[in-house]
Amino acid sequence: MPFPNTVHYGWPAGFPGAWASQNPQRMVVAGTNGFCAGAGGVAIAAFAWVQADGATVLNRPDATNPKAAPTGFVVRSQQGQVTQYLGQNTMTIAQGFMVDLAEGGDVFAIATTVSVAGQAVYAALADGTLQCGAAGAAPTGTVDTGWSVALGAAAGLPFIITGPLAGARSTVSSSGTGN
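The chain above was modelled as a monomer; its predicted structure follows.
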């Protein structure tokens, strides 16, 4: 590690790809062999697509369906490895390593645009990076993710996105015994 040359007076609200709350957190259920990063690796804190083989994940849609919505958001699960000699950190999951995809919950992210609470979150089809805007008005080269901004921030700063919730299932007993 090099000698520190900057001082930060305040910590950021959170770190991209980290869970932002303990509200329900939902993960995409992987097949038997799980999900693994494809050629070139997968960026953490970006949206990703499961490819046609059902196991490979990339930060861009499969060529057979180039405008598909992303499968999920790549969360930090201690799967990024520093592979560069004397490297210090990485936000990339190396090719062949496990990938975790969130499909719901509250996570920290970074967008290339200003984010305001209530806006829709869009994923760039080229690399899965985030842009925010009015619902139904996808910027050019993006696709709607189904996620929305929960707590906004300036472009390039951590903010919170929230994913859609699954339909609730009834767990009410009809036995009449109260158990």
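The mean pLDDT is 86.
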